[in-house]
Amino acid sequence: MSNIRFEALKAAFKHKPVEVVEPEGKVKDYFARDVFTREKMKEYIAQEILDQLFDDVDNGRTIHRDIANVVAIGIRKWATEHGATHFTHWFQPLTGGTAEKHDAFFTLKNGTLIEEFSGDSLYQQEPDASSFPSGGIRNTFEARGYSAWDPSSPVFLIGDTLCIPTVFVAYTGEALDYKTPLIRSTAALCHAAREVCSYFDKQVKHVHSNLGWEQEYFLVDEALYNARPDLMLTGRTLMGHNSAKSQQLEDHYFGAIPARVLAFMRDLEYEALCAGIPVRTRHNEVAPNQFEMAPIYEEMNLSNDHNLLVMSIMERVAAKHHFRVLLHEKPYAGVNGSGKHCNWSMETNTGVNLLAPGKNPYQNLQFITFLVNVLMAVHRHNGLLKASIVSATNEHRLGANEAPPAIISVFLGKQISEVLDKLEHASAEEAIIINAKKEMKLGVGNIPEILLDNTDRNRTSPFAFTGNRFEFRAVGSSANCGAAMLALNAAVAEQLMLFKEEVDKRIEQGEAKELVLFDIIKKYIVACKAIRFDGNGYSDEWKKEAAKRGLDCETSVPKIIDNYLLPDTIQMFEHTDVLNESELHSRCEVKWETYVKKLQIESRMMGDLVVNHVLPAAKRYQTMLLKNVLTVKQVFSEDESASLNEMDYSIIKQIEHHSGSVELMTEARHKANRQPDERSKALAYHDTVLPYMADIRDHADALELIVDDELWTLPKYRELMFIH
Ligand code: ADP
Ligand code: MG
Fold first, then answer.
1. For ligand 1, atom 14, which residue shows the shortest CA distance?
2. pTM for this model (two decimals)
3. 207, 213, 214: which to mutate for ligand 1, most atoms within 8 A of CB?
């Protein structure tokens, strides 16, 4: 009888590194080869049109139809010259990932084929969007959705298709995607930060937020993947006993990259570079077959587009190399999961990083101002920030002993903590020294200009200051970073608005600006102290301590999602014009619904695996054992040793247990499905279905250890993780 696992292993061993062809020329020659960059636009579009376009884009104004028409002609010319036959609006629905609807560049007019791609096609498209989740928005407003050009992110080619980054909104204007509120949040932050910058530097006209993501992922051989229905359908292994050797020796981390993987990475990097994604680092991660890729940071909206693009390029390139890429946060239980650290900072048009210490006292006061306002925002909205990163898939990673804990806190490191402590205890005269020439000095000791190299790191912190930026480490590897980034941008924007109001009021009353700034910062340092934590985020003491400090310690994903609907959250999002109340409701609906669907698929898959893989193998083995007992009895009739030993009994017990648990899990699932709304369904899945899944898994994994290796049909952890 053939065993699919052995067939898969044979196929996997045959896979060799695939030859990679480097694009012609040097990196600078092929970087952004497939992108219609501003530079290239100059060749195809008249300068005065471009001046208008860039001015509108840079200042967040709507593009006029006439401009769009001219731009469209240029885009089509460039695209067709480079082999494009089709175009698509490329958008980011709430399902995650990206969506496309391809149209040809031509149309029929009076029976003849003519090439057409007008300003209208560039501007707006109506995807048949009824199947995208809207959380009830379209139903209540009876509005259809449409996608609309985002001119701030350049169009690009994938094969013969021109991709146009777009937002996806309802006809009534509500956002149905991640991009729309992300763009709104960068605008809100830009405005609020510029206002605060005016205390320090009048030259600042514009502030933008930067994102540098670090994408972690696993690779698995395609033949083995295909023999694991759970990986195929859910992206993770629902069972599998841990391998004798896993990550204990940490020998994979920063070790030599295996040849097949290296070929994949080079290919991936060439494709990413051609797509204008400035990828820079690649290395092994902690778990076997786990890797990471990171680009140079870019403006938030563009960087997020690039991350989504890279995720799809990864899948395509992996297939070419007979790999599958696993973007799931926790493909394997018991080994490290994958995250997507989001490095976040704010930068002025004058080139100043607002989260980096400066060269003079004003720049340092500015740095402290922004730093402390970020702390305040994270403190006030720690529950929301957690809600922005939770999902059915990230749930398995958070709080595990190798990932950020399910409590949001901020790590600052020793140096910055000391500066804040000094400020907290200093009097105004000690902190702000103004000499006779009206020059200001900060009396809190030195803030080294460069913190980057001497900032200590804390891998257990979900939100860490790393010298000139914050690293939001709790974001999941499969997530659209937009969800987390828009919450952070909006929270900080609102905080800066409140700060500005407070400062202005006191300046108007005649107080000196520097002293007011100091006084309010000092007040904030005290107010948000609870969010600062430099210790071990995995420890049980921290859980107790965090609860005492009033931080959000909820661990149930469906309940964490409630944070989107707290009065403070709604007010914050409305105040900053990032999301209105109905959009927030719809987002929660989608989050709960997606949670339910994912768990439903997993639980069904688990039932299937037990009934069709695990139990047949276990029963076959049991029959072998019983036959063995009979044979021994026949030969040595009265031999005591010919009875079932403990291991054999355990097989029988496991089999019985299994059959029972699957039935109970199915019952719990059916009951959950009958709940009246998405939130109650999600809660029921979390509280009643998940525990059965954990229990079934334990028993399946125990069986895997006992059953004859030759009978086991699912590729084992050691095979999935060590074959490359
Ligand atoms: P590490 O691996 O130690 O976290 P790296 O130097 O590899 O640090 O950087 C990680 C990510 O941080 C990269 O994506 C990088 O582009 C990004 N990054 C660096 N500086 C900034 C910044 N000022 N703002 C946003 N992201 C940044
Ligand atoms: Mg990092």
1. 212
2. 0.94
3. 214
